[in-house]
Amino acid sequence: MRLALVGDIGGTNARFALWRNARLEAVRVLATADFATPELAVEYYLASLGLAPGSVGAACLACAGPVKGEQFVFTNNHWRLGRRDFCGALQLDELLLINDFAAMALGMTRVAEAQRRIICNGAAETGAPALVIGPGTGLGVATLLPLAGGGWQALPGEGGHVDLPLADAYEAALWQQLFAGLGHVRAEDVLSGGGLLLLYRALCLLHDQAPRLASPAEVTAAALAGDTLAAATLEQFCVWLGRVAGNNVLTLGARAGVYIVGGVVPRFADFFAASGFARGFASKGCMSAYLADVPVWLVTAEYPGLEGAGVALEQALACVPG
Questions:
Q1: What domains appear along the chain, each with residue ranges and CATH number?
Q2: pLDDT tens series, the chain, 322 aa
Q3: How much is the pTM?
Q4: Angstrom distance (rounded) from CA 110 to CA 301
């Protein structure tokens, strides 16, 4: 394969890299606000490496949102991408657009042992699906399937928008506080960066205390420093993430394991490992034994979305005749 370009584009940042010999090179992170169009961002990236349009023959961009049709509108930034215009401006032979969490799922096939931390011990079932779930700006969920002839298929979905699951009276009371402000309460409303702050405020209301923390970072820092209410917030966040992940495993039969990804949880990895996540994950009544030996890992790899975009491109081009 000729030199290729891979990208992982979110609302705030666009990560780009060259893909050569199945490896990432020259990773750069650009602010989407600095460029009017994705074409201009890619041209700037290539120029920073001394490369002109036409230097890369193919590209795979992982984009937040459902991918279909000629035009793609980015969910959380001002960019729009027309496939024909983009290929023309950058002189590309091939352009592959995939969902950002599909790329994240494919990236799990490249994660080394040193880039993941065991949260729940277990034995991955050969041939079964794996679950990839991650709190970040929102809550991403995808499924990773091994293919019979080799290779992988990633199934994106909108699992972050399922209803928030409740397991006891305390969670029901907390849900009532959330419902009063939100109406319908989705898992993503709590299990995300902004959701952590929302959960803290709901706990303050439930315990009749005035909130004194004003950002997710402040809540995390206070929890790790021993603040009682902030620690209770982080603990409930971990338990609810366990419940949602466990529900997904039951739905998908994802007995090959669960990968926890995204930028939120690694910020409190030790707290997470000691939290009630495992209890929330495996406490499923008569089906608890089904989850007891499903492994769970916290992924600490730096650029799994870019790695997954590279895997997707390799697989797509392998299927092109000639």
A1: 4-105+303-318 (3.30.420.40), 112-300 (3.40.367.20)
A2: 579 999 998 877 899 999 999 999 999 999 999 999 999 999 999 999 999 989 999 999 998 777 777 778 777 678 888 899 999 999 999 999 998 889 999 999 999 999 999 999 999 999 999 999 999 888 999 999 999 888 889 998 888 899 999 999 999 999 999 999 999 999 999 999 999 999 999 999 999 999 999 999 999 999 999 999 999 999 999 999 999 999 999 999 999 999 999 889 999 999 999 999 999 999 999 999 999 999 999 999 999 999 999 999 999 887 654 4
A3: 0.91
A4: 9
